[in-house]
Amino acid sequence: MSGASRTLDPIAAAEAGIAGSKNLIAAVADDLSQHQRWLAHYRVAEKRHARWLVFQQLMYQLEHARLRLMRFLKRLALISLRLVRSIAAFLSRTAVSLFAVARRAVTAGMTWLRPRAYALALLMRRWLAAFWAWTVATSSALARASLKSASIGVAWLAVQSPSLWRYGVPPLGRGLA
After folding, report:
1. b or e along 75-97 (b: 16 or more beta carbons within 10 Å of the residue's beta carbon)?
2. Are 157 and 172 in contact (CB under 8 A)?
3. 6-41 pLDDT, tens per residue?
């Protein structure tokens, strides 16, 4: 009740109302500037967050691509390993088969060739013996025939030497002096 005994002065009340309005306007202006600062900081933070989200999305995509690449490379390595194993098995089977075929062919060839080589050796031995006997037999006859021919040739030359002298050939035993 103390306020009821007070007298209200209209000018003082108006001044108090104006001062209260000024304080209210100043407080609202402070709140508004603080709200604008908060809004500016919020926008900057949202831009940073959006960039961070883009970076995280990029990192996720890169990790996902890396995992897909690793899966693909692992599959490729397994396929290559299977292929190499199949090729090695094929080559080893083929080499063993070729070796067996070659061994059989060489064995068959040697079996076929052995009697023929032996027969050829016997034939060559007979031919060599026949050739040697013929050479021995014919060489003495050839030597006699050569001696006979040489003696006939010398005798003919001796008989013909006077007639050869006419053509400039000296007789046997005489030189051109």
Report:
1. eeeeeeeeeeeeeeeeeeeeeee
2. yes
3. 557 877 777 777 777 878 888 888 989 999 999 999
Residues 55-108 pLDDT 10s:
999 999 999 999 999 999 999 999 999 999 999 999 999 999 999 999 999 999
Q: Which amino acid is at 89?
A: A
**DSSP 3-state of 3:** helix
How many CB atoms sit inside 10 A of residue 160's CB?
13
CA distance 137 to 146: 14
Helix, coil or strand: residue 91: helix
Residue 125 structure tokens = 């031995």
Check residue 167 and report its DSSP letter.
T
Mark out the alpha helices in the chain (DSSP H runs): 10-165
How many CB atoms are closer than 10 A to CB 171?
Answer: 13
Question: From the CB of residue 164, how many other CB atoms can be counted at a distance below 10 Å?
Answer: 13
Q: Which residues contact 27 (CB under 8 A, 6 or more apart)?
A: none
In sign, the C-alpha dihedral spanning 152, 158, 160, 161 is positive
